[in-house]
């Protein structure tokens, strides 16, 4: 992979009554995360985020502001990911999971901090994501 290449990933910070939606990924790298995924060729960022969230959770969303962007280098995969995290609103809170995930939860900020990997927590803290989401 060319060191200047990156895979673009979009994620949704979906809030409902001061709770954020997280999903638990299965497979080689199981972890809790916000829903979202890779942007396909010829897709806008908004189209990709709506598609990914619907595929993973069955939720239809409206995409709001960009909360933050970060780069994650995964040495054992030899890849770099440009991750764009957006605030989003869902029409419903009823989640229907795809095969990519085995659990979903609407969690408080405290529960989020207990479940989410440290690299994501650091980005959320650095960019005051919860504070900004709760003050919308």
From TrEMBL:
Q: Which residues form the Nudix hydrolase domain?
A: 1-135
Q: Which UniProt keywords apply?
A: Hydrolase
State the Pfam families in the record: NUDIX
The family database entries (Gene3D superfamilies) matched by this protein are listed as: Nucleoside Triphosphate Pyrophosphohydrolase
Q: Name one GO molecular function term.
A: hydrolase activity
Specify whether Hydrolase is a keyword of the entry.
yes
State if Transmembrane helix is listed as a keyword. Answer: no
Tell me its family: Belongs to the Nudix hydrolase family.
**Protein name per its UniProtKB record:** NUDIX hydrolase
Q: Which organism is it from?
A: Bacillus selenitireducens (strain ATCC 700615 / DSM 15326 / MLS10)
